[in-house]
Amino acid sequence: MIQAHGASLCCGLLHGDCQVFEESILSVVSGASFNGATVAVRMTGINKRFGAVAANADVDLCVQAATVHGIVGENGAGKSTLMSVLYGFYQADSGAIEVFGHPATIRNADDAIAQGIGMVHQHFMLVDTLTALENVMLGAEPHWLLQRADQQVRAKLETLMQATGLHVKLDVLVADLPVGDRQRLEILKTLYRGAKILILDEPTAVLTPQETEQLFEVLRLLRKQGTTVILITHKLKEVMRLCDHVTVMRAGRVVEEVPIAQASIEGLAEAMVGRKVHIGRVDGDARPTENVLLQANGVIVRDAMNVVRLAGLNLALRAGEIVGVAGVSGNGQSELLDVLSGLIQPTEGHLSLGGRDFDAASWLDPQTARELGLAHVPEDRHARALVMEFAAWESAALGYDGLPEYSTLGWLAQDHMRQATADMMERFDVRPRDVELASSKFSGGNQQKLVLARELGQMPKVLLVGQPTRGVDIGAIEFIYSQLRAMRDAGCAVLVVSSELDEILALSDRVIVMNQGRVTGELAIGECTESGLGMLMVGEGE
Amino acid sequence: MNTSHALPRWADLVLLPIVCLGVALLVAAAVVAMVGQNPAEVIAVLIQGAFGSARGLSYTLYYTTTFIFTGLAVAVAFHGGLFNIGGEGQAIMGGLGTGLVALWFSATLPAWVMLPLMLLAGALFGLVWAAVPAYLQAYRGSHVVITTIMFNFIASTLLVYLLVNHLRPAGTMSVESVAFSESAKLPNMRTAMAWVGIDWPASPLNVSLFLALLAALAVYLYLWRTRGGYHLRAVGSSPGAAEYAGINSRHQIVIGMSISGALAGMVGMNEIAGVNGRLLLEFVSGAGFTGIAVALMGRNHPFGIILASILFGALFQGGAEVAFEVRGFSRDMVIMLQGFIVLFSGAMVYVIAPRLAWLLAFSNRVFHLRTQTPKSGAAHG
């Protein structure tokens, strides 16, 4: 039946001499029937050690052809290692790989592509200064004259786009493409090279809810056409929506492999972490007061290109409440955090904080903000929150090195700083508990816990948090949520910016929705529905 | 993509430079053999010349002194994320400052006022010469690499102009100033050692060696023990995080470059106050650029820079001996050897490090198998 499907498709697209393409499209749409096998990938007894750490221990994985197979697990559970073995980045210490029923030796990405395996990485591998089309043919130019190559590739791509619904403007520079388009381009690129098995590593991490939905539509279509999809993710909701099977990994081992019909979010979360977790809403303790700790009025922020990023924003944060900022990424949430913490200057606006008033002519700077009791957990952990090369104890004092317990007359009190860091690690369960370890060597969750420990350590009155759990394990999410709630209960005013709507709904007492630099809605948590917020997020609310 | 093995710290700091040096020597030896010389003999003469006698050692340490100053200068700027190529010009200006103060005041002031004054003047001239490009980088966006290179040319022509037109005594042919009075001369090591009763051979080595070691200590303390150094390193490693921490990166650029320039400026104490006792041309002769190699090899750490300076000092001194002793072996061969060392310890580190790491991991595994103590899995992720 799938054969017939492929054939009919090809009839529609024949363009004379594109023999190779015919095969590649055929293989795209008829992956399942390739050699009659129903198992696309079978990995048996995969072992991979890095020094003393077993990244993969006796891992078995069986992926049925023409299905979407989810692999979930916390950071460091071994899912990326397993896929790297499949894609040829690493060689397994022992174990066997079969692709469509044939034993396969995959030494590098070229071998993987020859076996019909394509991978879309979390961080896109695209050249910004080339067009979409040039990116696709980069390294696989069918003709040494670029103009000839261009024509051939364009013809093939257009039919491929027709067949898969992956539409990308081919002549636009990648730098000018939205993130969702870049991802489609990456998928297109792997399909163009004849991938029958598509590995996607955290594909929705950078997508808006709408883009995610579009991606899932495409993946469903690809599945229907016979492509096998392996989805690495930590978002269980998406697994439940899209996958046919799911494999759960923990500490290098497969702990569960079930058809999706037998899986539940709670069950998968428990399997991932190894204990019961609760990351949903905890009601009850909020006691918002009328005590306004931060008041911003008419704040206008323009970027370097003079584009308005915040258009006259008003905001009041009260003691004892968590305010969530919902919105599609890039609608001014980042600028809101930056302007309130003094990282950028507004062109207009007024701010009251800790008994001081600021206007655009003399805005506060990050140091003043800290002194006035404002703590900021930045969105970008790597570029802002930590100096990656610094030892943990050095990063744990970032912004606070002027405190009397950390320095005297310009000399660092190293022993105190180390001791304070050790205390932070103990209180926030940062692992490993090594104050000398470089900040970059901690996992995302542990880095975030260290940042939180630092920012909460001075008992701030106002706490700004950007993407509290981006790249953080599910076990640590629970902990971070409880810490944020504890701050609120202690009388702190907390502002949470997150691109995950679930997170906003789980944490906030009050939700602000932003679109194009404006507040398009403000709701008490009781009035929030996912669809209602979604409408406000795209600027179509009442 | 297979860089899964990280080097342990000790191997990164000790083993790796030694391996790189060994590879450089091997390749250089092969080239020496290719031109028909005996590599073993050349290396023996080189080491003998650099360390074999008190006099040879003395010359080695004299070169070392200058390299420590210029190496530290490069390293401090580097920790602030800046590539200071202007060590040469800053050293020239430092020497000029040292020399001018000596020419103006040495007849009237005693040594205990004169020498600190010369040090300050040298450091200040170097500082200013680095601060101008730093200001242009911080507030105007002109790249510091370009401007410092240009400032090298300006410094060197300025020195020529001043010497030829103003500082040269009338009627002399050589382009140099008059000799300073005794109060402006830094004690020679022979003199200094004689105070404590040690007989040390005459050489250009002088007490500015101790000044260089003190400077290395000061740089270490500044970078890793003070808030200033903490801020400078934060700006150098992560400008975004520094901004978030409330550190003014423009100030740090100017401060870092100023310290860098002041360190380079102290070269004048060794060459002008310590050796020549007069202002002349060519007293830096490329040491500012060698400082880049020294910092690279010393991994931008003061202790590493001292070791790398000794190595380069030995190459200069031993190389001169080889060129003198071994027939048919020119000074160019010594420069080739330096080139290999810079190549292998600078650029090829990234080729050698993963292989070394793999080798270490392999030997560790063999060791573990033999001792039958499987380590329990450490916390990962």
Largest interface, by Cβ-Cβ below 8 angstroms: which chains and how many residues each? A-B, 48 and 30 residues
Class computed from helices, strands and strand pairing of chain A: alpha/beta
Calculate the terminal CA-CA distance of chain B, rounded to whole Å.
19 Å
Number of domains of chain A: 3
What's the count of strands of chain B?
0
Strand content of chain A: 15-25%
> Oligomeric status of the shown chains?
heterodimer
CATH superfamily descriptor of the largest domain in chain A: P-loop containing nucleotide triphosphate hydrolases
Strand content of chain B: under 5%
Structure description:
The complex is a heterodimer of chains A (542) and B (381). Chain A has 542 residues and is of the alpha/beta class. Chain A is built from 19 helices and 22 strands. Chain A folds into 3 domains: 2-273, P-loop containing nucleotide triphosphate hydrolases (Rossmann fold); 279-373 and 460-542, P-loop containing nucleotide triphosphate hydrolases (Rossmann fold); 391-458, no CATH class. Chain A has a 6-stranded mixed beta sheet with strand order 6-7-8-3-9-10, sandwiched between helices. The radius of gyration of chain A is 25 Å and the shape is globular. In chain B, 74% of the residues lie in helices and 0% in strands. In chain B, helix 2 crosses helix 14 (302-325). The A-B interface holds A 50-55, 74-77, 89-90, 251-252, 341-343, 365-370, 376, 378, 380, 383-390, 394, 397-399, 401-402, 407, 410-412, 414, 431-432, 443 and B 1-2, 4-5, 225-228, 230-231, 233-234, 237-238, 240-246, 361, 364, 375-381.
Key attributes of the depicted protein:
heterodimer; A: 542 residues; alpha/beta; Rossmann fold; 3 domains; six-stranded mixed beta sheet; 19 helices; disordered N terminus; B: 381 residues; mainly alpha
